């Protein structure tokens, strides 16, 4: 079973990375093979001869066998982390509702006008807006909303759109690192380790703000002599009326209030003893009831491919765990026995960053949390909750920031490349590396400094 499970797991990852088959189809295919050959399912065997009671009924046997049978029938569902799935689905519904109001286009146009048509200032403002939105929305959704407006602005200014798109993509991965819901790897880590929305905000947001400012300064320094346009071209941008982007003020008011309440719910869900999925689905339900005339149409706009990708991935990782692959991989960490705890934490962060760039940060994180969890359970140092959390923060920073390392490192990257190609702008794998690798290395170095300071702060 070990070698079969390993073959299915590695083979599926190779197919996903090759992009020869849609990632959702590849993940679901791997999940199907795990369900067929590795994971235990419901039993359809005989449970003995039926026994009659004095009234000729089968009540006693039904009571004896219904409960274990229901448990067996639920075994497939137990392989999927539905907290992550429903959190993503709920936020997709809310974002789609707000996108129909023109809110995000308004933000992008307003940013360009505030910059007075300057390409460099427009770039910096769009990068800032993208990072902030990505902290509270899924970064893929943010790119889907910001990229089309970016193409319009770049066309009006007659400047190449690719630098804008790539810089925004990396800003989305940086900004998404700040919160539980900003980037899917954080959802996986938070769900596995029991870390709340507020915990992510308190521990990661301050660093991400600093990292974002450093990133914007580097962009300013690099592009300050490269992005210049005429006064006439600036005037085109200033002629845009951002108010015309708002198409439904009533829905914006209702959807905005619901989104704010939902975000407050995320901040308080730990105190209220509610899972993030409950908060997200409650917000989505209110949005569907109060803001949607056609609920079926609203549900059709959910990114089902992304959700099925995650579901397939969860089953795939569970199958690998059942086959014993995760245990064998976890044994490799034995080489870190005797290392200084800070060295262990930083090594896991950097390995996570590199693997995320190669394998895709969601795929890697789904497997890594199990391996690292098993490793932590055998080391006394990580029995202290604060030290345990520090390792999870390091992993979150590693995989989220490492997602900028290549075109396949994060879902937002692939989304940007697809949008650019549809509009006649090809971004090659090499082009992305030229931008992504330096950003990843610098951001991981900054993250290492932050983790080191936090480590010695905890040990004071």
Task: Describe the structure in your own words.
The longest helix has 30 residues, at 429-458. With 460 residues, the protein is an all-alpha fold. It has helices at residues 2-18, 23-37, 59-73, 82-99, 103-114, 119-136, 139-157, 161-176, 184-193, 197-223, 231-238, 249-272, 276-291, 295-300, 304-323, 325-331, 341-359, 361-376, 385-402, 411-422, 429-458. The model is unreliable at 43-73 (pLDDT under 50).
**Category by helix and strand content:** mainly alpha
- Report helical residue fraction: over 70%
DSSP helix count? 21
Arithmetic mean of pLDDT: 83
Number of domains in the coordinates?
Answer: 3
Low-confidence stretches: 43-73
Distance between the termini: 48 Å
Element-level helix/strand string: HHHHHHHHHHHHHHHHHHHHH
The major sheet is characterized as: none
**Rg over C-alpha atoms, rounded to the nearest angstrom:** 24 Å
Oligomer: single chain
Query: Which descriptor suits the 3D outline?
Result: globular
> DSSP strand (E) fraction?
under 5%
**Total number of β-strand segments?**
0
List the helices and strands and how they pair.
Elements: H1 2-18, H2 23-37, H3 59-73, H4 82-99, H5 103-114, H6 119-136, H7 139-157, H8 161-176, H9 184-193, H10 197-223, H11 231-238, H12 249-272, H13 276-291, H14 295-300, H15 304-323, H16 325-331, H17 341-359, H18 361-376, H19 385-402, H20 411-422, H21 429-458
